[in-house]
Each structure stands twice: as structure tokens, then as C-alpha cells.
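As a warm-up, study this chain.
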Amino acid sequence: MKMLIGITQDPQASAAAVCRQGTDLVQSAEVGPFASQEAAGQWLEFILRRGRGYEQLPVACPDNGADASPWYGCTFTAIKPGC
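Now compare it with the structure written out below.
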């Protein structure tokens, strides 16, 4: 079991992308909305500095512009044999 963290404009799409890799997820928290990718990134950096052993998810480049829609922070618990 491991903890995943990331920022996204679509939390459900982010979870689905990880699930397609064969990982079962339980969403722990969704934070936001943040007004910009920069604001969401600051939240992410704050949490990562706390050193709780999170693995960072990649940030997907949105098709409609980085700040066209609000950003969210998400944490997930990944459950996969061998994790």
C-alpha cells in the first residue's frame, strides 16, 4: 500500500488513469478548488515537505489551457499486490 498525491483539473480522470495501470485506489482527500496551477502546486509542495512518504503523480497538461478551469489537490491510497 502506498500514498499518492497530485494536482489536477479533473480528479476523476486522474484516478482513472492510475487505475488503468492496474492499481486499485481509494481516494483519501480532494482539496480545492485552487484558482491556478501555481496555487495548487504550492499546496502540493507544502504537503510533500511534511515528509509523509507520498509518491507524486505526474501533472497532466490540460488541453484547454492551464488555468481555464479550477485546479484540485488529491490524495489516494493505492492498493496493489507487491506495493
